[in-house]
Amino acid sequence: MSKRKEALTWVLVTFALVLVGAAAFYVLWPQLQPHATVRIGDGVFKTRVATTEEARVQGLSGTTKLAEDRAFLMVFDHEGEWSVWMKDMKYPIDIVWLSHDKKVVHIVKNAPPESYPYEKFTPKKAAKYVLELPAGTVDGKSIIIDSQAAFDETKLEVSL
Known about the structure:
single chain; alpha+beta; six-stranded mixed β-sheet; 3 helices; 25% helix
């Protein structure tokens, strides 16, 4: 085989390996992200989890939608009156604050993206968790103050 054909073969093999690697990354990346299954009200949600300040600040910013069976869960080290703002949001959401024992302590329905930078949403009671859901979910899944959420805290993975 000529050196030119051999070089072309190596380029094609390398390109094929890069494509396979990119495809594997695309398929596996969601599985590598911190996640949990959250049950609350009449709903069960596949939930992306944020346990670091950077991941909580990023939140759902820049995403184009949240499927009705999906949610975003922010986990804090301790209870506090954690505010949520709608920076770079493109759609409204329902926001649910949960105490350390996973009971609903505050709810904001249909928080509009246009509220940023004028408004922050802050609970009236301290919470350890903040759950963001598609707008309309709180009413549609019968989530009310004192509703009990269920998820395995020991399996919450740490955000990268």
